[in-house]
Amino acid sequence: MASASAPTTLSLLPSSSSSTSTRTRSTPLVHLPSSGLRSAGIRRLGFSASDPIFASHVASKLHSFSGKAVRGVVSMAKKSVGDLTAADLKGKKVFVRADLNVPLDDSQNITDDTRIRAAIPTIKHLIDNGAKVILSSHLGRPKGVTPKFSLAPLVPRLSELLGIQVVKADDCIGPEVAKLVVSLPEGGVLLLENVRFYKEEEKNEPEFAKKLASLADLFVNDAFGTAHRAHASTEGVTKFLKPSVAGFLLQKELDYLVGAVSTPKRPFAAIVGGSKVSSKIGVIESLLEKCDILLLGGGMIFTFYKAQGLSVGSSLVEEDKLGLATSLLEKAKAKGVSLLLPTDVVIADKFAPDANSKIVPASAIPDGWMGLDIGPDSIKTFSDALETTQTVIWNGPMGVFEFDKFAIGTEAIAKKLAELSSKKVTTIIGGGDSVAAVEKVGVAEAMSHISTGGGASLELLEGKELPGVLALDEAIPVTV
Questions:
Q1: Is 71 labelled as part of a ligand binding site?
Q2: Which residue out of 115, 266, 331, 416 is catalytically annotated?
Q3: 247, 432, 453, 468: which is the annotated catalytic residue?
Q4: What protein family is recorded (predicted)?
């Protein structure tokens, strides 16, 4: 059992000269008795070749996972919009579910257009091939028709990015919408109003899905951010529209989050942070089946510390998860995964941006103080460990990065991953706060891939199947 005077140490790391053609394992860093936690079953997913043009683009970002020649990238075995030719699309009405849930300020101005820009390649492909695009999305969590959640503010930016005037409907179903669809020219785009203005959307009511589907001839789902939900516009419409295929963005998310994690170029490291172990149990267990190095940060580390008999002061601890933490440490040992916990932390006398703070060893957190970030020694050790890798996925901050004083650890990891990207390491930011962190630091463009989905990214990393993906047409298997 680990000493009660110090947390798990960080002395054994894979050598940078380790072979990447086979799975690299170093001696695990934890030596705790197992409490018999049974690992969650990992459901195996099917794969197929992607659209050739798109595959070439993604393959260039993946830096050849095989360690030899660049192979075709993989995706879940679903038909892609790239499989549809001009003959399939010209004159056809295509219902496109995108994720245009962008943040707006009090004056209804878009403050971050990332999701709009991410939707453009699929829409452009469709209009360039003569399709009539019926664009659907949600925005926020409206309770019925709520003007502040209208999609109207998105029209100018969509029009600018597409180079055509996007037409806006005042509803998403009904006779007036149907008239607008009839008048839509080939290569035109009609933006429907927020589908969540109808409660039937999230309830996935068949009649509502049928009304949406009646507007179109075929369906393209490009909304990865909602793919983990079975809603009328993501799953329900597939029962009435054929073919139902994946858009380029959805396909790219699957290529990275499934393909890169399932067949990474090794050594493969995962960085998991966040406030609670309970919210990341599935992710940690799934990654322990696949990674060589697992770095833990954020508030969850104090549950691991206490499980090892350390004093954590007034730091966040999930008392009912102490046994789980011990079991995860033991599972890492059994799997041969180097699980790295911070050796020093930045502590504060209160949870506030102006709190008094100091740096202490992880084994010396005094009563009345709480850990809010990883310390400089841990930043260096984590960075050294990451230097040995070829693939890294990051989900969750290292500390309370919303407070500048306690954002240093998170920002250091973001900068390190940007540096590794420049050295051809595949870096994947797995959604949520990690995305906000790399954007805050200004290194988002450097990463190999940044996921547009928070909850969807988590569920995919946990090995869960996504309803919005399962509902799509199966691809014809192709050897990669």
A1: no
A2: 115
A3: 432
A4: Belongs to the phosphoglycerate kinase family.
Does residue 303 share a domain with residue 383? Answer: yes
Single out the catalytic residue among 71, 210, 239, 276: 276
Residue among 305, 291, 300, 388 at smallest CA distance from 338: 291
* Residues 345, 325 share a domain: yes
The answer to whether 82 is a known ligand-binding residue is no
**Is 138 annotated among the ligand-binding residues?**
yes
Q: Which of 231, 254, 277 is the last residue of a domain?
A: 254
What is the rounded distance in angstroms from the CA atom of residue 276 to the CA atom of residue 317?
A: 8
Please tell me whether the overall predicted TM-score, pTM, comes out greater than 0.90 for this model: no
Residue 182: burial class (beta carbons within 10 Å; 0-12, 13-18, 19+): exposed
Same structural domain, 210 and 276:
no
Answer yes or no: 455 catalytic: yes
Residues 168 and 56 in one domain: yes
Indicate the number of domains in the chain. Answer: 2
Is 430 a residue of the active site? no
The response to whether 99 counts as a known ligand-binding position is yes
Residues 358-416 have pLDDT tens digits of: 999 999 999 999 999 999 999 999 999 999 999 999 999 999 999 999 999 999 999 99
Strand 370-374, strand 391-395: pairing: unpaired
432 is catalytic: yes
pLDDT in tens, 99-111: 999 999 999 999 9
Q: Is the peptide bond before 243 cis (omega within 30 degrees of 0)?
A: yes
266 is in an annotated binding site: no
